Amino acid sequence: MTSTPAPAPTGRLEQRGEGHVLLLTRAFRAPVEDVWAAVTEPDRLARWIGTFTGDPAAGRVMFQMTAEEGATPEEMEIRECTPPHTLKVTAHAGDDHWLLDLELTENNGITTLTFSQPGIDPAAAENIGPGWEYYLDRLVAAESGGDPSTIDFERDYYPAMLEYYQKQL
User: Fold this and answer.
1) CATH number of the domain enclosing 97
2) Predicted local confidence at residue 94, as pLDDT
3) Average pLDDT, the chain
4) Is residue 3 a part of any domain in this protein?
5) Which of 25, 29, 39, 59 is most buried, by CB atoms within 10 Å?
6) Residue 86's closest CA among 36, 127, 131?
7) How far is the CA of 70 from the CAs of 64, 66, 150, in angstroms?
């Protein structure tokens, strides 16, 4: 029996103005509308990260992580939603908030998802980067017919990617 090699980290930290942005990309052999559905429809989201309740048209929903045991619902404020290309939300967790942005582009049947987290503390990237690598790889698995539950955070993402993200500083 052969083991699958651990995924290589792909994220990068960029300085933009006074702040930093964490950027990760993934490519899909699918139309942009299909990838959009995977990141916006509750049933599709549930396959890889979580689901939401509420009406997105109201500008806020409650998001519940399903891939993490014991996660509590968090408010997501929808800052921009331009289907099927742009989704920008602010995740509110207690007193903390994270800006999370998704941009989708399609070229010759390949849709590229660019995930960014503007305003990230560079020192936090070593913990946050591996987490987004994990979730985006779960999305790729869900959308390519794989099983997201076979992706192992503790074995392949953290602390395995810690050193890579420390070097991004």
Assistant:
1) 3.30.530.20
2) 79
3) 94
4) no
5) 39
6) 36
7) 10, 9, 19
> What are 138-146's contacts with CB under 8 Å, separation 24+?
138/48, 138/49, 138/67, 139/26, 139/38, 139/39, 139/48, 139/49, 139/113, 140/26, 140/28, 141/48, 142/38, 142/44, 142/47, 142/48, 143/28, 143/30, 143/34, 143/35, 143/38, 144/28, 144/29
Q: How far is 99 from 70, CA to CA, in rounded Å?
A: 23
DSSP state letter for 122 = G
- Tell me the two tokens of residue 79: 């800052």
Q: Is the pTM of this model over 0.90?
A: yes
The percentage of residues in the chain with a pLDDT greater than 70, rounded to a whole number, is: 98
107 burial via Cβ count (<10 Å: 0-12, 13-18, 19+)? exposed
- Comparing CA positions, the residue from 43, 72, 40, 38 lying closest to residue 56 is 40
30: in domain? yes
| Tokens describing residue 91 | 């995740």
- Please tell me the predicted confidence (pLDDT) of residue 6: 80
C-alpha dist (Å) from residue 144 to 34, 138, 141: 12, 10, 5
